[in-house]
From TrEMBL:
GO annotation, biological process: protein N-linked glycosylation
Pathway: Protein modification; protein glycosylation
Membrane topology of this protein: Single-pass type II membrane protein
The protein's Enzyme Commission number: 2.4.1.155
Domain Glycosyltransferase family 18 catalytic: 38-323
Similarity remark: Belongs to the glycosyltransferase 18 family.
Name by which UniProt lists this protein: alpha-1,6-mannosyl-glycoprotein 6-beta-N-acetylglucosaminyltransferase
Spans traversing the lipid bilayer: none
InterPro entries, per the entry: GT18_cat (IPR026116), MGAT5_Glycosyltransferase (IPR052105)
């Protein structure tokens, strides 16, 4: 059985994908999400789809346990239904967005104060679960879509629930947050003000060291620092390419961007240790800073900590990105966080 999950107004729901589903003898079921009545299928729903309308949770779970393939057609983003489907033994097939959806090209994000780019309907499932439970393809490529459906129908998968979505995983995460953070004490600035000429306070001339077998920087074990969590031992300072966000730069290194670390790399010491040549160093309100432009030898630090962003990107600048490792099945926590 194939179960389709989507807003039916999606353009993905019309056209070439129907051929792949019609060619397979398994029945196709739908669970539309725009308030249609159970016994009144909207005209957009193809005739070969059995429309269940809006199902109670228990009935939806029963349907998921019978299904093999769960298809999303691009919206809603990052909902819980794909995770429920995977936990019930379905394979989640979702569209790859080319280019990624953002406030620059998609109505849903337009006007929202974010520069985030969404690479697929459920980026978490794409990046941290992946095959065989999650298959992400270009739905505009009929051959790629057809091949994915046929591959899934031949594949046997077991129900899968990531550890961080279990009760134990959630409690482990909450325990770590509470145990290692003091919410009653104001956050101490890690460095002098971005436009200050004062040197780094403490022993070494700078707190950064070159990581083994890497072009990135880590925090020197003997460098002083205010209390911080995640621990600074997890910090890996990487440099993005022009036009690349810190989300993508960290991901390519098998890491995640950690916003809590921005305050530790927003300084001239980081630029100096990276051997960046700066003819000018300014502190500005710019969501891609700290960053630098190598051709112009321009360097910029972030003036307003509220503007620190993992998602921002600029064709002019290479960003300083505060990356960290993570525990498998518990992305919110670093390896030294427990």
């Amino acid at each position: 059985m194939t179960l389709i999950f989507s807003l039916w107004s999606s353009s993905y729901c019309r056209g070439h994908w129907q051929g792949a589903l019609l060619a397979d003898p398994a029945p196709v079921h739908g669970d539309p999400r725009h308030g249609v009545l159970r016994d009144a299928a909207p005209p957009e729903v193809p005739a070969f789809v059995k429309n269940h309308g809006l199902l109670p949770q228990q009935e939806l779970q029963q349907l998921l346990r019978k299904a093999k393939l769960f298809i999303g057609f691009g919206f809603p983003y990052e909902g819980p239904a794909p995770l429920e489907a995977i936990a019930n033994g379905c394979v989640f097939l979702q569209p790859k967005f080319r280019p990624p959806h953002s406030s620059l090209n998609h109505e849903f994000f337009r006007g929202k104060p974010t520069s985030r780019e969404v690479s697929s309907q459920h980026p978490y499932a794409e990046q941290y679960i992946g095959r065989p439970h999650v298959v992400t393809v270009d739905f505009n490529n009929s051959q790629e879509f057809d091949s994915a459906v046929r591959e899934i129908m031949r594949t046997q998968v077991e129900p899968y629930l990531p550890y961080e979505y279990t009760c134990e995983g959630m409690l482990e995460r909450v325990h770590a947050y509470i145990q290692h953070q003091d919410f009653c004490v104001p956050e101490t600035p890690a460095f002098p003000a971005a436009n200050s000429s004062r040197p780094w306070p403490g022993g070494p001339a700078g707190p950064f060291v070159i990581l083994p077998n890497s072009t990135g920087l880590g925090w020197a074990p003997n460098a002083s620092a205010p209390p911080c969590w995640p621990p600074l031992s997890a910090l890996q300072l990487l440099v993005s390419e022009e036009g690349q966000s810190c989300v993508e730069a960290c991901r390519r290194g098998g890491l995640v961007c950690e916003p809590a670390f921005f305050r530790f790399i927003n300084n001239k010491e980081a630029l100096s240790r990276l051997e960046v040549q700066c003819e000018g160093l300014e502190a500005e309100l710019n969501h891609v800073f700290p960053a630098f432009s190598a051709p112009q030898r321009e360097c910029g630090l972030q003036k307003e900590p509220l503007l620190f962003s993992c998602a921002g990107a600029s064709a002019k600048y290479r960003r300083l990105c505060p990356c960290r490792d993570f525990r498998k099945g518990q992305v919110a926590l670093c390896r030294d966080c427990l």
